[in-house]
């Protein structure tokens, strides 16, 4: 299995305990010029002869909304492992009203799991996990967030926040589809704004007189 992560300047793909040594390649969607895909790949081996491979691609230019895709291909080219990462457009929404955070698999998947996590200033916390083999959902945010059980079977794992709160639900949402040879990650920053009526009641009398709220 290939893992993928993104920082401000780099996208990193890695795989551990593999044999034989795989070939690593990168691509983006929309496509990028080949010079923009120059990467640094480190290969190490353990005492059993198994390889650990880590490949790093520098993010050059304004490519934040691109999908970054790495593939690890076995030397005999019979197996390919794929991982992708996309930072989606930010979502801004007023609290108290349902909001849908998009997450769509790029292709039809079989025997996959879907995981949603949330982070603000702390470590990511699990929102829910769905397994399409059993069609079971483990929902830690029961009543607050949900999937469409019919659409998720078709690869639409979008998350519905029923009644988002500006303090509790503003942060980064990460959606991950995981299948046997593939992993697709989508990350969305969500800003839940204070409702207009709340702003009104938070105004001081002097502010109201000046009509600044």
TrEMBL record:
Record membrane topology: Single-pass type I membrane protein
Record's keyword terms, sorted: Cell membrane, Disulfide bond, Glycoprotein, Immunoglobulin domain, Membrane, Receptor, Signal, Transmembrane, Transmembrane helix
| SUPFAM superfamilies with a match to the protein in the record | Immunoglobulin
Q: Which Pfam families match?
A: C2-set_3, V-set
Q: Where in the cell is it found?
A: Cell membrane
Q: What is this protein called?
A: Ig-like domain-containing protein
Start and end residues of each Ig-like domain: 1-70, 78-193
Matching entries from InterPro entries are given as: BTN3A2-like_Ig-C, Ig-like_dom, Ig-like_dom_sf, Ig-like_fold, Ig_V-set, T-cell_Activation_Regulation
